[in-house]
Amino acid sequence: MQGLLDQILAARRVSAPFVLVRTPDQPATLRSILGSLTNDASESPPPAFVWDIARGGQPINEAGRQALVDVGLDPSDLLALPDCLDRAVRLPARSVLFILNAQFYVTSARSTDVAAVVQGVANLREPFKGDERTLILLAPDLVLPPELADDFVVVDEPRPDADVLGRIATTLYRSTFETDIAPALLDGVVLGTRGLSAFGAEQVMAMALTEGGGVDLDALWERKRQQINDTPGLTVYRGTETWRDMIGYEALVDDARAILQGKLPVGAGVLLDEIEKSFAGAIGSGGDTSGTSRDQLGVVLRYMEDVQAQGIILIGPPGCAKTLFARCFAGEAGVPLIEWDIGAAKGSLVGQTEERTRRGRSVIDAVSAGKPFFIATCNKIADLPPELRRRFTAGTYFCDLPTADERAGMRAYYADKYELDPTVVYDATGWTGAEIRNCARMAWARNMDPREAAKRIVPIYKSAADMVQRLRQEASGRYLSASHVGPYEYRDTATDTVAKPSGRRVAFASPGGK
């Protein structure tokens, strides 16, 4: 927050007329800015005003109230935003005018008065820059229209870091229980609220307090999950999967273990499922004409580069444990897995997609403390732009159909999970892990012999044989093998794995719980 306040004070000192502040908590940010302007030792408090759709324009300090009297204006003159902007030219030198939820009024199709608002803002540039008056737009996310983009100083308020969340938790706990929170419990509360706004975090913390000085961390995480899920395109997955649920693909799992035990911390997993579909509109002449897909791609590229994010691309036929790997990875790391659906962030209104995409990036950055690990799944990697593929510095792995040993382990795993007779063997040649799971689940759900259930499965190596072969041929020599160390090598076999044997025996642990 202090960095944001310093930037606004600096903008004021050079007479920058317009500032856009993107913040998750507009009322708190407004109070902080006003307090900073009031306490600036080099200046007396400036006349300050705020406009919102419910109350119109209002003075918010004594200097502002006196200024309206001096220039002969009444709050009733400032009800409509175009009128407020038109009359703002009469405000005295050094005045500050805040507009809340500006995203509704300066982007196309958000308001029938958008043209009048954009022009009203533009008309203030010359008079405002001459005498240190400032128009400050506040919004959770806003991409300025081209008519105004070059005239604004843009400041992003980061979501609270661990220190801020710790102070909030400490203050709340002390005021409730009249004692200090235990350090270990404080760490759990901070982790469980990372990514929320200060106000949102405080509310979630308060709801999670229990009698006797406890904090229900599970309830805290659930409320946090619900808040993050309200961000278009984001879904938090908090399952219980670990490496014991990942049968086979030992080279990929070994490399993932090395990553988690390495020097670069992982703050959250970020799953980009079927990434080639998410960015299909950003590539080539068939892209969307609005440019939103290209903008989304640019946001992801810049963010991954800015934070030097690690990432893995997993390519292979559907059902070959790519999404399961992401869940196991996050479970082993002890961090949330955020599923980022780029397509779901698209909106019907101009500017809405850009705003939602940036909001998603902001939440991911906050939840991961700037240390996200990206996992992209893909069925057609040729459709990915090379600049995106280069961001996934931890490698591209090909997940082939499971080997015979891996399939045996999967049958045993799912027989245990669904309480089936482990001695019953059915032919699963060429099946994916998902198909073996579906067979076991069908047998359990229908009280059916697994051999009967197997007759109702048409494996993908038969239903999409051309696709499987194309993927194998494309991967050969180009991508790492998920099953053995080194590049994947294609062998023309009809149904079984094409992975080069690693020489190691695959061990399958009992999955334990049902």
What does this structure look like?
The chain is of the alpha/beta class and 514 residues long. 43% of the residues lie in helices and 12% in strands. It has 22 helices and 15 strands. It has a seven-stranded mixed beta sheet with strand order 9-12-10-13-11-14-15, with helices on both faces. Strand 2 and strand 3 form a beta hairpin. Helix 4 packs parallel to helix 5, helix 14 runs parallel beside helix 16 and helix 18 packs parallel to helix 19. The radius of gyration is 28 Å and the shape is elongated. It starts with a helix and ends in a 33-residue tail after the last strand.
Number of strands: 15
- Could you name the ranges where pLDDT drops below 50 across 5 or more consecutive residues? 497-514
Strand portion: 5-15%
Largest sheet entry: 7 strands, mixed
Compute the separation of the termini in Å.
48 Å
**Average pLDDT number:** 89
Give the helix level as a range of percent: 40-55%
Rg, Å, rounded: 28 Å
Give the helix tally. Answer: 22
**Going across the major beta sheet, what is the strand order?**
9-12-10-13-11-14-15
Inertia-based shape: elongated
Secondary-structure-derived class: alpha/beta
